[in-house]
Amino acid sequence: MADDTNDPTGFEAAIKPLFRERDRRSMLNRFDLWSYDDVSLHADRILARLREGTMPCDSAWPSERVDLFQQWNENGKPQ
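RESULT FIELD:
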């Protein structure tokens, strides 16, 4: 498996920064939004909640952010 931790479209560079500390704290009883393994495992459910506008906890993301998360998910969830 290739080391893609520096991939500009990967989790560390593009996805993790989308989630604020507040978002992370609100979800820690379920999973860690700053954990690649957790977000990768739950990506479909997270995407559904993002599309519904019920996540993050205080307001919906703009469509560009949701689209970025969806693209990351569809592209194999690079780290």
